[in-house]
Design goal:
The protein folds into 2 domains: 384 residues, 3-Layer(aba) Sandwich (Alkaline Phosphatase, subunit A), CATH 3.40.720; 60 residues, Arylsulfatase, C-terminal domain. Helix content is 25%, strand content 17%. A hairpin with a 2-residue loop joins strand 14 and strand 15. By secondary structure, it is of the alpha/beta class.
Amino acid sequence: MLQPLWTVLGIICLRGGMALGDRGPSGTEQPPNIIIIVADDLGWNDVGFHGSNQIPTPNIDALAFSGVMLNRYYVQPICTPSRSALMTGKYPIHTGMQQNVILAAQPYGLGLEETLMPERLNALGYVSHAVGKWHLGSYKKAYTPTQRGFMSHIGYWSGKKDYYDHTNQEHHTYWGYDLRRNMSIARDEFGHYSTDLFTEEAIDRIVTHNQSKPLFLYLAHLAVHSANEYEPLQAPANVIDRFDHIKDGNRRRFAGMLAKLDESVGRVTAALQETGLIQNSIIVFTTDNGGPAASFDFNAASNWPLRGLKHLLWEGGVRGAGFVWSPLLKKRSYVYEGLVHITDLLPTLVSAAGGDPKTLGKIDGMDMWSAISKNMTSPRKRILLNIDPSVNYRALIEGNLKFIEGTFQAENWSGWFGPSGRNVSRYDLYNLMKRSHAGRVVRLNKMQISEDKWKQLRAQQDIQCQQSPSPRRTCSKAPCLFDLSVDPCEYLDLSQTMPAATERLKKAVDDYQSGMVPPRNKPVDPRANPKNWDYAWVNWGDMVHPPLP
């Protein structure tokens, strides 16, 4: 059962929050507060606003339907590249982050020459805090969050961990504790469920914030990423039990993880309301990549009916669930159909904060604030999805056309994986949304939509695929071309019938590749093994190393 709203608000009051009706500085007095909530490995079909009925996401939906839903929003196919793109506004090929993820035992990180989002916003007067996942390098202190613009960080440095004991197993036998409060190991949080821990810490940053300055809160959840492979899907038993209608055990546990993530969104939104910050706030919700479906990475996400999954450049790996919510939007409660990429969030938010995106230097992101807030044509015409030179795997979108060449891992991950979730009629999703924590906030701010409008917006994002799959299921030997306007599920390869367009997009990718910086990847260093450091993951590159075995 969700924590009652009065309990959440009582906690806020006890922590010194403002009473209902008190308001902070108005939007005309200072830049808007910015809250970015990153869901880890959330699939396209795991949110209600994309049409699934299987797992309710009422708080996420309440904000999405009263904000701007980004229907053609793209991210990178895996964690580290997406987070680097978000923080720098640059494609990973321009920062060396294009190839795989950073392991905690690898001696590299996002380059120290890069200026990150919190540093950009701090220059505009913001106070920046990070909660949750980092995954942009930690082998030396200089690469960690509080050295890169965040005033505080409670969370973990690596790519995943256990939700309860906060240990991370990597490189087969490397195993250690990975939870930090700034630079200190937070062993006192052992047993505290990660989603709850990060939610409570985010609320604390909100209610203790000095409202004389704008707040930037980066809340990067562990959910719904798998934990360690020996127990990958973890949620409180009483939450999992609410989904006994889901017969697949892994999907049922996944539902529990997703329900806790959705609850977190509601509690954070309620805190913003009760502290008076909400009227001058922008909330961005995004996944970092497509969902790992069909037990990929020991997970049970769903991207149905999109093709592929996490790690892949098919739509299921890179077309992300995302929205922008704010009372400051000129237009809202609509589906934005223009192209948007995760690199666009930096210049967009700098623009919304009153800064000049031109000061960001040579980046790949584009300022989308006017386009999104006024429902104008997107300035973006092209998205480079990625180039991984280690396997020559690359893809690009231009308008409605998508070029993809190469493959990743085995061909069997290039298919279409459920569940669809469309045939479940167990829930009254509209009324669940209205009664949620975020739904109440939406109501208080007079942003609620009618049930007819809700149905219309939901139907607008329900992807339908009519064609039969092409016999050629991968593009490993020759590039493929798809028209996403009529074939969003990437069934029909048009490379043979549209050779000129295929060659034009291939040349565009070649041009990007010619300007690509080398990947920064480094091999695992055995001196990082947590057994050398009291079984904790540490910034081992700064320390006196034990001898190599």
